[in-house]
Write a structure and sequence with these properties.
Keywords: Membrane, Transmembrane, Transmembrane helix. It comes from Hyaloscypha bicolor E. InterPro entries: CorA-like_dom (IPR058257). By secondary structure, the protein is an alpha+beta fold. It folds into three domains: 223 residues, Beta Polymerase, domain 2; 148 residues, no CATH class; 60 residues, no CATH class. It is 56% helix and 14% strand. The model has no long low-confidence stretch (mean pLDDT 84).
Length: 483
């Protein structure tokens, strides 16, 4: 087994987890753990600045009470001098190192080298790195979201216990969703002398007060109960589970609004008191379903952590022959019952949300189909009217074509008659002249017949040529060419 933290001090060159004398599960590659931590360093840690809050307690010899102490250690101090001098102090009951993020989805407020120094000095087992990787810079709650719990019990009554626990808290923003998903990383190493070393990632002021109260209660149980170092974990789990009643009530009210819409809306006919259903309602209920699913995952993680804590409590009791009068067993049982109840409530909300989503989708689909059928009927009516109008137009066109054809025939006949009349026009003109008084006084030796044909024939030839040119359009071509 690796040495306890206060027996052998790590060297300044020791690099966690490659060179650190800490526990690693069988088959785990420390080099890969080191590489992953180095690759994700920019997202996990600050480049410079930050530090760690150190809290510890010393026991007063006179009144035997714990006196809490606090100190902030910068990253530069940790990198230069380490943290060895803090556990060399006598009479401390617990040491607690707290690393806070810059904001909810931000980096851990410490440098990578300083954080590695702390891990190496405390000889923290490598499974805790899985908890560390759930923190760092994020863009949403679902990124790197994972509920983890690990423990290791050693033969010398020493154990290591770590987990990442997520929970819901009111954010107090006054806008948008009043609830936010938080997470806290917890690590504890309890030595055989019932001293504890803690490393906490991201915990609130309320959780800090509860942990302080838990450590004070733990000090009263030291020596009386072998599982007393687990008392703070019960306080942490109780803190994480304290808002389930309000949160499930809030989710239930939101689901109830959509459920009322789904069960009260009519499909075939819309009344004045009917709800206005939109596709946005389906989107909102689907988003609410995702939120409830996340909450179900969160409470599963809390139940898994509680179960592992209960098993560790049983193991510690099994190693101790002293009779214990603490109520940790009953407290764990009550917390287990509460979490099971809220888990069942969330599962019920998941089922209700799924049914409501399906019903709302079916109503909208049916209404859309009805609207589509009405539109199709209107379109078909319009098409029938257009077809009827087209038939009427076709008949009118046929009549116009018949009239036009008849007009062409009549025009051709008139043309032929006109040409015939034009051919006889010179003869008529000459005959008119001969019947006038112009030729009445002429000498009698003139032959009027020969004179008539002499005048008529040339005029007739000229008229025929004019008709030919007019028919062929030759005079128009010459006219256009000249112009």
């Amino acid at each position: 087994m690796h040495p306890l933290i206060y027996e052998v001090l790590p060297s300044q060159e020791e690099r966690y987890p490659v060179d650190a004398d800490c526990y690693a599960p069988t088959g785990e590659d420390r080099g890969l753990c080191d590489q992953r931590l180095r690759n994700e360093s920019l997202g996990l840690f600050q480049v410079a600045g930050g530090g760690v809050n150190l809290m510890w307690s010393i026991r007063d010899d006179e009144c035997q009470n714990l006196l809490p102490q606090r100190q902030f250690i910068t990253s530069e101090e940790v990198e230069r001098h380490g943290i060895h001098q803090y556990w060399k102090r006598d009479k401390w009951q617990y040491l607690m190192f707290v690393v806070q993020p810059t904001f909810s989805w931000g980096h851990l407020s410490i440098t990578e080298d300083a954080f590695r120094k702390i891990l190496a000095s405390l000889r923290i087992f490598t499974p805790f790195l899985q908890v560390v990787h759930t923190f760092g810079q994020k863009t949403n709650d679902k990124q790197r979201a994972r509920d983890l719990v690990y423990d290791r019990l050693y033969p010398s009554a020493t154990y290591e216990f770590c987990y990442n626990i997520r929970y819901f808290e009111l954010n107090g923003r006054g806008r948008g969703n009043p609830w936010s998903l938080r997470q806290t990383g917890v690590y504890q190493k309890c030595m055989s002398n019932e001293r504890s070393v803690w490393l906490l990632l991201n915990y609130s002021n309320y959780l800090s007060d509860r942990v302080s109260a838990a450590l004070a209660e733990e000090s009263n149980l030291v020596g009386a109960c072998a599982a007393s170092p687990l008392v703070p974990h019960i306080f942490i789990l109780s803190t994480a589970a304290r808002n389930w009643d309000q949160y499930t009530e809030n989710l239930g009210q939101k689901v109830m609004l959509f459920e009322e819409k789904a069960y009260s809306s009519r499909i075939d006919e819309k009344y004045l008191d009917d709800y206005e259903l939109l596709f946005a309602d389906v989107q909102k209920i689907a988003l609410l379903g995702d939120t409830i699913t996340v909450a179900t995952t969160v409470i599963k993680g809390q139940r898994a952590t509680l179960s592992r804590c209960s098993k560790l409590h049983i193991k510690l009791h099994g190693r101790n022959l002293r009779k214990c009068n603490c109520d940790m067993t009953s407290t764990l049982s009550m917390l287990k019952v509460d979490l099971q109840h809220y888990h069942e409530v969330l599962l019920g909300l998941v089922r209700t949300t799924s049914k409501t989503t399906q019903l709302l989708s079916a109503i909208l689909a049916t209404r859309a189909n009805d609207s589509l059928r009405a539109i199709m009927a209107t379109i078909q009516t319009g098409i029938a009217e257009l077809q009827l109008q087209s038939r009427k137009t076709g008949l009118d066109t046929a009549s116009l074509l018949k009239i036009t054809t008849q007009g062409h025939k009549d025009g051709f006949i008139i043309k032929v008659l006109t040409q015939i009349a034009t051919v006889f026009l010179p003869a008529s003109l000459v005959a008119t002249l001969f019947s006038s008084t112009i030729f009445s006084n002429s000498s009698n030796n003139i032959s009027y017949v020969s004179l008539y044909f002499t005048i008529t024939v040339p005029l007739l030839l000229v008229t025929i040529l004019l008709l030919f040119f007019l028919e062929k359009g030759l005079w128009l071509q010459r006219l256009f060419r000249n112009s």
